[in-house]
Please model this.
Amino acid sequence: MQIHTDVSLRGLNTLGLNAKCSAFARVESDAEIPAVLAESRARSLPLIVLGEGSNVVLAGPVKALVLQQASKGIELLEDTPQSVLLRVSAGENWHQFVGYCLQQGYYGLENLALIPGTVGAAPIQNIGAYGAELASFVSAVHAHHIEDCSMLTLSGTECEFGYRDSVFKHRLRDRVVITAVDLRLSRVAQPNTCYPALQAALNERGCTAPEPRDIYETVIAVRTEKLPNPDIEPNAGSFFKNPVLDEEGAKVLVSRFPGLPCYPQPDGSVKLPAAWLIDYCGWKGYREQGVGVHDQHALVLINCGSEDGSPLLALAEKIAATVLETFGVDLEMEPRVYGCVDD
Ligand code: FAD
Ligand code: NAP
Model:
């Protein structure tokens, strides 16, 4: 493992932003982590962990040692007729791992196909899509504390998972390097078709009794058709989280904006689609200073030629301000910002 200085991260974030970091180390084995942490202390540089850079905005020079988690490996810890328990190294690519599980007959993750990024990053925001989320499968998360390199293991409950949220965005934010995730998957196929858009796409394909492979393939087909590919239009997925309001607040808004879709949550709160709010404010397809809002998907901000992240963050701020003014709703950014703004 080598530590490089002054490295451009352009190829390492899906927005294609050209920020340089002070130092960089790609870690392919957990045994290398203590040396990288020691080096960050020796150089008095904070340590930032990067997976595949699909949920970060690099706002400017990153004055840190960036550790890229690239450790690989899938270990079968338990195998019963009902379920398996797997330990998956943090650097495994998430989508490839989902495909591997399907091939092995380990079920549950099909709805989460084609989400970019690594397994190690998946617990950070409790990745979710098409009616499923990671939290349902996590048995434990293994990590090193950045501060003193001590190891810790958190149970699923201790991860404090919420809607695109976890303890890693709060108490443990930027304080751990996740090395592996333990996931319990079913040996029995239990297709999850609760998400209406997925059910509609399955119907269109004539899948009346879908198998896990049908779900997997349909999710891939819908995502490929609907969501911009970062290799062609650099983006970081959804730029804002869907806001969640209490029932009363949602009722008031629906009476003022009758077309506003509402998704009641099990705890009585109501989720609103951020894309609808942004679209209503007229942002879809907008462009300025080499950045913009995707033509078909108002929640996806794209980089169409900017070298640094500030124009993107400035646009995000304007969008959030108009949504606040129009609906009285605060939008929270989903990707993490590094480089100048909050490092
Ligand atoms: P990075 O972007 O590299 O890092 C994200 C954050 O996690 C950073 O704060 C980083 O420090 C931290 N981190 C990464 N790895 C580790 C580690 N090993 N230890 C400690 N901290 C770590 N998300 C969804 O939930 N659902 C979706 O459907 C979805 N679709 C997307 C579609 C597109 C086109 C794109 C570009 C993004 C999408 N995302 C989605 C967001 C993104 O894929 C996820 O957040 C993913 O988990 C990020 O993985 P990554 O390896 O790229 O993380
Ligand atoms: P969509 O199907 O057009 O729906 C728009 C939004 O409405 C979604 O964000 C979704 O919330 C919500 N929604 C729709 N039907 C719902 C229901 N029956 N119950 C509860 N919520 C409902 O969304 P899309 O943009 O094409 O994305 C499809 C899926 O992929 C979504 O689950 C989305 O989260 C996920 N995705 C995530 C990212 C990311 O970066 N985070 C990027 C692309 C896609 P949820 O987001 O809570 O599902």
Observations:
- The longest strand covers residues 176-186.
- The pocket of NAP (ligand 2) is lined by residues 128-130, 195-197, 226-227, 237-238, 242, 263, 271, 273, 275, 334 (CB under 6 Å).
- DSSP finds seven helices and 20 strands in the chain.
- The mean pLDDT is 96.
